Amino acid sequence: MPVTVVKHLPAIERLAEENIFVMDSLRAEAQDIRPLRMLVINLMPTKEDTETQILRILSNTPLQLEVTLLHTASHDAKHVSKQYLDTFYRTFQDVKDQCFDGMIITGAPVELMPFEEVNYWSELTEIMDWSQTHVYSTLYLCWGAQAGLYYHFGIDKEVLPEKLFGVFENKVQVHHHPMLLRGMDDVFYMPHSRHTTNRLQDIQAHPQLEVLAGSEEVGAALVRSLDNKHVFVFGHAEYDRDTLKKEFERDRAQGLSIAVPKNYYPNNDPSQTPIVRWRSTGMLLFTNWLNYCVYQETPYRIEEIKQKKEERHL
User: Fold this and answer.
1) 209: CATH
2) Which position among 51, 123, 210, 238 bears the catalytic label?
């Protein structure tokens, strides 16, 4: 089934070349069904690359999704034009009176900063507060996962001795929770690119959280709240084949000290084509979240999301 987005979004043409069906909003309005309403908070500077990756991986579900892209108004984006944002994105003020079945908060290149020093932190926390009553389930990615874990559950990140950069094994920690892990292997690969981590012990000690996957090397990889309203992914299962390659070449061109990403190039040789080990993991993870944490639980009348959330907190 298609993903529905704003008409003329550049990602539509790119995804169509891959035989991925993305429907514009005008065509979707003619169909008499109730699509899932998804809100994507895109915090990455490379907006178009990130939105294409997210839409590609969401398109694997048989559900129809109506996707709204949101940027933070309190941050002056330097890698995308104001016209692009005005055309394809909304701000929190535009959507705050609406309800959404699901929300995705992406990563951001601000991980070495204390959360409170990020210039859009106040706006992001307002969105996360609002989501408690207006969004049924939220999926947090990389820095977004660290931000959500810190804000909602008080678990801070810590700086790693060296950047975690490459494609790493992640081991399933539980075997009694089939929903988010359905179809996934006991050991699966996922790209990680970060200078900080969350310790498994800190999360395991929290009574409202469960670590689903991780390892000593990567720390936490996949975590859920027990009510499935918060799902944290600390890697990048949505990445393209060449995303780590672009990051590696960019940093090397700037004279930065960066190691060859682990388990990525054949024989660790950057002249060779990277090996994709995580595509099936990404498809399963996003599809399972959409199916079991959103579609199977969210009310048909979307305005009832707020009522159900409020009842849960009584």
Assistant:
1) 3.40.50.880
2) 238
Query: Has residue 233 been placed in a domain?
Result: yes
Buried b (16+ CB within 10 A) or exposed e, 96-122: eeebbbbbbbbbbbbbeeebeebebbe
What is the predicted pLDDT for the residue at 155?
97
What is the radius of gyration, based on Cα positions, of the chain?
A: 19
Is 238 part of the annotated catalytic residue set? Answer: yes
311 is catalytic: no
Is 142 noted as a catalytic residue in this protein?
yes
Give CA angle at 288 (146, 185), nearest 5°: 85
Provide the domain count of the chain: 1
Instruction: Record the pTM.
Output: 0.87
Confidence tier at 69 by pLDDT (50, 70, 90): very high
Q: Which one from 66, 123, 142, 293 is the annotated catalytic residue?
A: 142
**Domain limits for position 30:** 3-158+196-239+282-304
Q: Where are the beta strands (DSSP E) in the chain?
A: 3-5, 22-24, 36-41, 65-70, 89-90, 100-105, 135-141, 158-172, 187-197, 209-215, 219-225, 230-233
Contacts by residues 253-260 (CB-CB < 8 Å, ≥ 24 positions apart)? 258/163, 258/165, 259/162, 259/163, 259/165
* Higher per-residue confidence, 5 vs 9: 9
Q: Give 87-119 pLDDT, tens digit per residue.
A: 999 999 999 999 999 999 999 999 999 999 999
pLDDT of residue 153: 97
